[in-house]
Amino acid sequence: MPLHDMSQGDPMASSPISEPVFFILLSLVSQPRHGYAILQETERMSDGRVRLSTGTLYGALHRLLEDKWIERFAEKETARGKQSYRLTSLGRRNLQAEASRLKHLAQVANRLIRTEA
Amino acid sequence: MFLLFRSLLLLYPTTYRAKFAGEMLSVLTDRRADLQHRPVRHILFFARESGGLVLGALREHLRQFRVPQQFPSFTNRRSFMRSDFRFPKSTVTLMTLILLCIIVAIEKAESIQRSIAATNPGTSVDNFSIVGTLFSLLLLVAAIALIVWAVLFAFRRTGLHRLERLDFSKAPRPKATLTN
């Protein structure tokens, strides 16, 4: 499945997504989260390697919202009425495609390294 | 600290700020609550978040200049100006800040150049100044950008760009008049 280009939303275009965006999307796979929870989950999943600033996080969320990879909704349970984010079916498909691409890359790399060794 | 964050949020485009500013401040508050009473952590937090906000604002302004895909761009040899384009006030502030930084950097470079010449009279400082060249280049680029913008603005004022969108097939045909 071709990976959708984030910038244009063109289904024919194919480009890998950046690591922070990949982690942001991954953090939304199991459940919807608000901004701070996304930051915490991203940091936890990457073992503290990916530490996003608030400006960077919201820049990425804005882009993902525009391209309809994620959607935003108001949480009813919280007192402050925080906005949460969840993956759309398009976002889930693209995340799956990116995971497959990375898996293929790792397989090729491992095969080559083993052959050279 | 939060006063600065609030000020930096003013650098963002208005629509973006209306949508995300409250949420961003809430995240910043939560993050600061996580920090323990360690000054180093506070300094790092402050530096990273301030940098992130400034770069984020710059990125959002640059995105406003991006031409949407459904309209022809310069690559199609057709000029296009977004009909909803407005020059936000925060862009002016951001550009002024950048200009001030450039001027300060130039001043600093010139003072270093002078101090080198004063402390080492034997060494000759070339008349060729990279700062001057860069400044001239900047002026040239600004002049070209101004000319391009003026041409596009003129096109827009004439309404020439609207002609492409006209669909003559849907236009009512004039009734045929019977003539003897």
What's the SSE blueprint?
The complex is a heterodimer of chains A (117) and B (180).
Chain A: H1 19-27, E1 33-34, H2 35-45, H3 54-66, E2 70-74, E3 83-87, H4 89-116
Antiparallel strand pairs in A: 1-3, 2-3
Chain B: H1 2-9, H2 14-34, H3 39-64, H4 89-119, H5 130-158
Helix pairs in contact in B: 1-2, 1-3
Structural notes for this entry:
The complex is a heterodimer of chains A (117) and B (180). Chain A has 117 residues and is mainly alpha-helical. Chain A has helices at residues 19-27, 35-45, 54-66, 89-116; strands at 33-34, 70-74, 83-87. Chain A has a single domain (19-116), classed as Arc Repressor Mutant, subunit A, CATH 1.10.10. Chain A is built from 4 helices and 3 strands; from the N terminus they run αβααββα. Chain A has a 3-stranded antiparallel beta sheet with strand order 1-3-2. In chain A, α1 packs across α2. The radius of gyration of chain A is 16 Å and the shape is elongated. Chain B has 180 residues and is mostly helical. Chain B has a domain at 1-66. Classes of the chains: A mainly alpha (117), B mainly alpha (180).
Quick structural gist:
The complex is a heterodimer of chains A (117) and B (180). Helix content of chain A is 52%, strand content 10%.
